[in-house]
Amino acid sequence: MTDIRPRRSALYLPASNARAIEKARGAPCDVVILDLEDAVAPDMKALAREQALTAVKEGGFGRRELIVRANGLDTPWGAEDLTALAAAGPDAVLVPKISDGAEVRACDAFLKDAPDGMVLWVMIETARAALRLDDIASAARDTRLAGFVMGVNDLAKETGGEQGVLREPFQAILGLSVAAARAYGLAILDGVYNALEDDEGLAQQCAQGRRFGFDGKTLIHPRQIDICNAAFTPGEAEVAWARKIVAAFDEPENASKGAIRVDGKMVERLHLVQAKRAIAIVEAV
Questions:
Q1: pLDDT in tens, 155-170
Q2: Euclidean distance between the first and final Cα of the chain, in Å?
């Protein structure tokens, strides 16, 4: 079984806002992303970095995974962000605007002295990245790369495509990004939903993301967490079916079989892997 840490909901918070950081310690999300990039004005970058480093040092986020989104290496702040975060050691560093494997390796070089458990995540949000997904994901072979995060807003800006709730112009990129991530054992989170008051639209997009195979979704407001958690948590019927599959394969007569019959359905060992993952997520939650 690969990494099954729940990542149903990942809440972005501007690291320049100390009050928001404190509230995040009690938020019901699985992942907290302290943002040094888009949510922080240029004159607040230094303060945001300082407050993010303090938050990492102080901890208090419980079971929540703590990720800090740095500025890109092509900005005046990126190199210093990565150097400081490597010393601080959050669970992960998220780097925006990655477009190829060479850029992943350039970021990874700044993390060479970071704690062993700290990993690198990257944003998939440029048109170039959409054309180089295998090159980017394959960098996981020799770097700390462990996850993708979709940046559909930036993709829309670059391509001129209109998102809508079901993001029709971007579905190919979403699906291929999931495939690239899974090919190299990476976690992957869907992009944000911008309409803060549209609960129905959020639920639809969460459901779409789960159908695509995302582990969870990034969010821009705490009020979105519950809807997102519900969408990415396996339901009672799904878990009950998963337990039936596991129990069936545990029977001695099925120990060496690749496919068996369960409640009139043909079930293969690939379904056993999926079943164990669903159970593990629910138990971890």
A1: 999 999 999 999 999 9
A2: 17
